[in-house]
Amino acid sequence: MTTHSPTRMAAVLSTEYRSRLMAIAREVNFEEGTRIFEEGRPADRFWIVRTGTVTLDMPLPGRRPAVIESLGFGELVGWSWLFPPYLWQLGAEAMTPVRAYEFEAQTVRMMMDADPAFGSAVGQWVGRILAHRLQAARVRLLDLYAPHGSSGLRR
């Protein structure tokens, strides 16, 4: 992704809303190789990458997990915290040492409920990310499983 990605928090949320979120952020670090979360486990927090690279992956029976996307500076890691039943839909791993801002999901959901305009803005941001990640998964699965030369099927 480029620096001007339409899914980055700074591209979608106003300065006021970013400030509200950052007021509750906690700085965390992940060592290279750390599993940040696993598909199917409770999604109770999310992160914004400060430095390093996180990969999103999905398990495949009898194979290594398929890497769907690599995330870097300014990108959201985790969206499942916003939608019941609040379970991770993918897995995530630190591919390099990662520094990130961590947010407690229940606190953010309460903030969203208390201010519908803030809630709508955060929902729009996460929705853009979800749409982007779904497309990335589609493309990656086509690369892995479609017959040779089918990359022309991408839209």
UniProtKB/TrEMBL annotation:
It comes from Streptomyces sannanensis. This is Cyclic nucleotide-binding domain-containing protein. PROSITE patterns: CNMP_BINDING_3. InterPro entries: cNMP-bd_dom, cNMP-bd_dom_sf, RmlC-like_jellyroll. Signal peptide: none annotated. Residues 9-78 form the Cyclic nucleotide-binding domain. Pfam families: cNMP_binding.
